[in-house]
Specification:
heterodimer; A: 258 residues; alpha/beta; Rossmann fold; four-stranded antiparallel β-sheet; 9 helices; 10 strands; globular; disordered N terminus; disordered C terminus; B: 481 residues; alpha+beta; three-stranded antiparallel β-sheet; 13 helices; 44% helix
Amino acid sequence: MTVTTLRTLEEDSMLYDLTGVTKRYTQGRKTVDALAGIDLQIAEGEFLVIQGSTGSGKTTLLQMLGALDRPTGGSLIYEGRDVAKLGEGDLTELRSHSYGFVFQSFNLIPTLTAQENVETALVPWHVGGEERRRRAREALAGVNLADRARHIPSELSGGEQQRVAIARALVREPKVILADEPTGNLDERTRDDIIGLLEELWRERGQTLIVVSHDTWVAGRASRRIWLDAGKLEAPPVDDRPGAAATAAPVPEPALRI
Amino acid sequence: MFFTYIYRELRRRHRQALLTALGLAVGVGLVVAVTAYAGGVSDAQDTVLHSLYGVGTDITVSQTQKLDQAGPQRFDMNPGSRSQQGKAFSRDVVRSSPGQQSLSTTKVTSVKSLDGVAQAVGGLTLNSVHVSGNFAEAFSQGSAQPPSGGSSSGSMPAPSASQAPIKVTSYSVAGVDVGQTGLGPLSSTELVSGRTFTASETTTKVAVLDKAYAKQNNYTLGDTIKISGAKYKVIGLVTSSAGSSSGSNVYIPLTLAQKMSDNVGKVNQIYVRASNSNDIASVKKEIKTVLPKATVTTAQDLASQVSGSLKSASQLADTLGKWLAIAALVAAFAVASLLTVSAVSRRVREFGTLKALGWKSRRVVGQVMGESVVQGVLGGLVGVIIGVAGARLIAHFSPVLKATVGQTATAGGPGGTAPPGMQAALGQAAQTVAVHLTAPVSLQLVLLAVGLALAGGLLSGALGGWRAARLRPADALRRLD
């Protein structure tokens, strides 16, 4: 009896609850099962790293978590709503209000300045021009790029572009930050910078941070990591077990953040 | 954000954007130029019809002379006696225009009383031929045929070596009903200086001259000219609407014209104005019953008889020009659509990212449409400039178009009674009118042009937008280009 109550409480506090999530892509006559039944729960405030080799379904899983796509089967409950059953309009709504994306190749709009790129995230909210600019400026200052606001992406270094992308993800103060190989196109020093920045923001704001990465150093920073292989969750290889690094980044106490 | 984004995107691919806009501009410009050209041709046709016909004249009635009724022209150039041989002579012969049979003025009254006829006025067109020269030296009844012709201004070579050149000049005279100058021969002219006839000048010897004719013969206002031996005072100068040969050279009161040509109480042309332009066909039928032998010509009949370069021009505008413009427009639309769709395809990640950020599909489509509409507006404006410039160019070179109205029209054929040279002297069998082509550009045309370019922009934008709407936000993550 007591156990059941505890479990229910635990489930309620879960941000994500995935049960048997599958995703099948059809390309011509070929069908690919990118996800072959994922059971996963993610608590609010976690720093989760999804690891796996190329083609293991990491990015597909991230797309499901970010409501970019609907699962083919299973249920994906986010804050009590099954994403698998939501319509296109609701998915758009969910994306604009709950998630912030950071992409491997930054995905900034090449013609717009850093400032304007950050502003694009506020367009779905219909924030007024002045307010929109102010918030974008603040977000850029938050990633130490205030002086680069008027540069277009091609005038910025890779690390700077990724910071702009992070500012774009943060400007709406979303519950979840989803990052797909955020350091994949960066050198080691910049990688440390970017991961450091994400970690710092995660600590300060208590957002849920979900990162897809095959970089063990990045994985070492996470509060939890999962391993994907052929669309299924696997136990991480023995020699890749998190050491002291994992404990260095603990899940903040739920009581500390409201 | 919307406009900034459009501006930035178009600036980034400005070459492609300009190409698209220019394509639309050329298509639209062609439409403007061709439409303006067609409008000019149509105006020219109106001008021709008015000048042949007279403004306000709906129907003309004339009767073609029968072959046997038209005797050969005789000028009595053979010396009457031996004493006249080698002496100078001068003759004036005034006759009803060749090939036109005179009608009694009572016919005018009966036409006037028909249903649907607002006004009917008689007119008498004459030819005055002036022959001067010397009588032949060697008078021989048997060998020398009476010379019966000559070109209008040149000298005619004598049939025999001993005969001196004979000069033949001719001009046309129109008898005008002075009480009705609004309808009749003068209605196809415009007053340049002086005045036309007053209603009381029925028998006053006054004349109105065609300006070109007056200039050619050094006549000015107030001069006195001699017609068939009588002196007339020049009271006014007029030009035919198209400055053509369709009008007469000299206009005099109808009564005097009738007297000098032995046509008292007769006219050879009836000008009819219908009370309603829709009744013209039925009025024509009625006249046919009253005057079964008469040739009844309506403006429409005349238009169908128009031939010459004007007709070619109108056919050119109708066929080649129209299709050229449509083809150019279709090509421009296709190019704009293809370029837009390909631009969208190259921006899959960009639009996917925006969708991942929560942009509604509608908003992304709107962005693509916005870019295309700006290109369309740009193309429309440039197209109007191209079109107006093209129209100006046409008007500047203003090619002279000639229109010829066939023999069955106002002037009947002389029926082969005179050699071709004489035909020219006595009046043209077919009337030729020359007009300058214009290419008017109206506000509606400009609006149409901008509208078309806008439609092209919207069409390409819709196609591009449709392509963008189908992009899935997941593409933003998967595609790495």
